Amino acid sequence: MIELAETTSPMFAQEPLTWAAFKLDGVLTARVSCFRGHSGLIPDHDIAADGTVSPSLACTWKGCHWHEFIRLTDWKPEEVETDG
Ligand SMILES: [Zn+2]
Is the pTM of this model over 0.70? Predict the structure, then answer.
Protein backbone atom coordinates (compact mmCIF):
# COMPACT_ATOMS: atom_id res chain seq x y z
CA MET A 1 0.00 0.00 0.00
CA ILE A 2 1.31 3.40 -0.96
CA GLU A 3 -0.11 6.83 -0.22
CA LEU A 4 -0.85 9.33 -2.97
CA ALA A 5 -0.91 13.05 -2.16
CA GLU A 6 -3.68 15.36 -3.30
CA THR A 7 -2.64 17.78 -6.02
CA THR A 8 -4.17 21.11 -6.88
CA SER A 9 -2.30 21.50 -10.13
CA PRO A 10 -4.21 21.70 -13.42
CA MET A 11 -6.28 18.72 -14.44
CA PHE A 12 -3.84 17.12 -16.79
CA ALA A 13 -0.61 17.91 -15.00
CA GLN A 14 1.35 14.76 -14.39
CA GLU A 15 2.95 14.98 -11.00
CA PRO A 16 3.99 11.47 -9.97
CA LEU A 17 2.02 9.76 -7.21
CA THR A 18 -0.73 12.33 -6.81
CA TRP A 19 -4.51 12.33 -7.07
CA ALA A 20 -7.26 14.84 -7.77
CA ALA A 21 -11.01 14.44 -7.46
CA PHE A 22 -12.83 14.20 -10.77
CA LYS A 23 -16.47 13.96 -11.77
CA LEU A 24 -17.11 11.60 -14.66
CA ASP A 25 -20.68 11.67 -15.97
CA GLY A 26 -21.80 12.89 -12.56
CA VAL A 27 -20.03 10.15 -10.67
CA LEU A 28 -17.23 11.01 -8.28
CA THR A 29 -13.94 9.34 -9.05
CA ALA A 30 -10.32 10.42 -9.11
CA ARG A 31 -7.48 11.06 -11.47
CA VAL A 32 -4.31 9.40 -10.21
CA SER A 33 -0.73 9.45 -11.43
CA CYS A 34 1.70 6.57 -11.27
CA PHE A 35 5.32 6.91 -10.15
CA ARG A 36 6.30 7.92 -13.67
CA GLY A 37 3.59 10.59 -13.87
CA HIS A 38 1.18 8.74 -16.15
CA SER A 39 -2.27 9.93 -15.13
CA GLY A 40 -5.63 8.34 -15.63
CA LEU A 41 -9.13 8.12 -14.19
CA ILE A 42 -10.24 5.19 -12.07
CA PRO A 43 -14.04 5.01 -12.48
CA ASP A 44 -13.92 1.22 -12.36
CA HIS A 45 -12.36 1.23 -8.88
CA ASP A 46 -13.99 1.71 -5.49
CA ILE A 47 -12.70 4.51 -3.26
CA ALA A 48 -13.48 3.93 0.41
CA ALA A 49 -14.26 6.75 2.84
CA ASP A 50 -10.65 6.71 4.04
CA GLY A 51 -9.34 6.92 0.49
CA THR A 52 -8.38 3.28 0.09
CA VAL A 53 -8.76 2.23 -3.54
CA SER A 54 -9.81 -1.28 -4.46
CA PRO A 55 -8.92 -3.40 -6.22
CA SER A 56 -5.21 -2.72 -6.74
CA LEU A 57 -4.35 -0.27 -9.47
CA ALA A 58 -2.28 -0.98 -12.55
CA CYS A 59 -0.99 1.78 -14.81
CA THR A 60 -2.54 1.44 -18.26
CA TRP A 61 0.27 3.14 -20.17
CA LYS A 62 2.02 0.86 -22.59
CA GLY A 63 5.32 -0.35 -21.18
CA CYS A 64 4.64 0.85 -17.64
CA HIS A 65 4.59 -1.89 -15.05
CA TRP A 66 3.41 0.18 -12.08
CA HIS A 67 0.90 -1.85 -10.07
CA GLU A 68 0.12 -0.95 -6.45
CA PHE A 69 -2.47 -0.90 -3.73
CA ILE A 70 -3.03 2.79 -3.13
CA ARG A 71 -4.70 5.17 -0.71
CA LEU A 72 -5.73 8.72 -1.56
CA THR A 73 -4.45 10.84 1.32
CA ASP A 74 -6.99 13.42 2.54
CA TRP A 75 -9.77 11.97 0.40
CA LYS A 76 -12.91 13.87 1.47
CA PRO A 77 -15.72 13.02 -0.94
CA GLU A 78 -18.20 15.16 1.04
CA GLU A 79 -16.20 18.26 0.15
CA VAL A 80 -16.21 17.68 -3.59
CA GLU A 81 -18.60 19.75 -5.66
CA THR A 82 -21.53 17.58 -6.66
CA ASP A 83 -23.12 19.74 -9.31
CA GLY A 84 -20.66 18.69 -12.01
ZN1 LIG B 1 2.70 4.46 -15.50
Answer: yes
Beta-strand relationship, 67-68 and 57-58: antiparallel
Q: How far is the CA of 83 from the centre of ligand 1 (A)?
A: 31
Which residues crowd ion ligand 1, with CB under 5 Å?
34, 36, 38, 59, 61, 64, 66
Is 84 part of any domain? no
- Nearest Cα residue to 16 out of 3, 29, 1: 3
The per-residue pLDDT for 20 is: 92
Specify the amino acid at residue 13: A
Ligand 1 centroid to residue 40 C-alpha, Å: 9
Is residue 63 a part of any domain in this protein? yes
Confidence of residue 84 (pLDDT cuts 50, 70, 90): very low
On the question of pLDDT at 24 being above 60, the answer is yes
| Structural domain total, the chain | 1
